[in-house]
Amino acid sequence: MDKKELIERLRRNDQSAFKELFRLYFFDLREYAGFYTADTQAAEDLVQDVFFRIWERRGELTIHTSIKSYLVRAVHNSSIQYLRHRSVVHQHNKMIKDRLEESMIINKLCFEEGICKLFENEIKEIVDSSLPRLPERTRNIYLMSRKKNMKNEEIAKELNVTVKTIEYHMTKALSLLREELREYL
Predict the structure, then answer these.
(1) What is the extent of the structural domain holding 135?
(2) What is the pTM of this model?
(3) Domain match, 124 and 74 both
């Protein structure tokens, strides 16, 4: 069958033309993508995605080169995009691993040398000295939440206000405390 005729039939929603196109090129394209990805499953997924996009856009499909060149270029672009994404994921995972290692080192120092207790005491002092600067109602709501371990619903019921009012005051209190503790966050 002529390749141009195959594309025309594909544009007319001919599933057998799509199957023929898939049969003709899938395995070679998978090998080509595998050359880039070094991952058989990823290569297969990339090629299937290319075919899926072709089927989705079959009605407006315009190919100015040979169908093979078009498919190779599409798989090439998808493979490069996959590699870029994989690189970003790798960098992100490395950053998380590095932060986790830092955290583990800090935790180890905390337990071995009691440094965390020092930080904890400093933070507690800053919070305690910041509370008087809060409006009285906001301060009381904060203390009910943090010192008495009450839930927003419980505080709202006790003060005869809405939960949204409690959330507003807690946001206000936490915003001030975040500002005061910015060096520790």
Answers:
(1) 116-180
(2) 0.53
(3) no
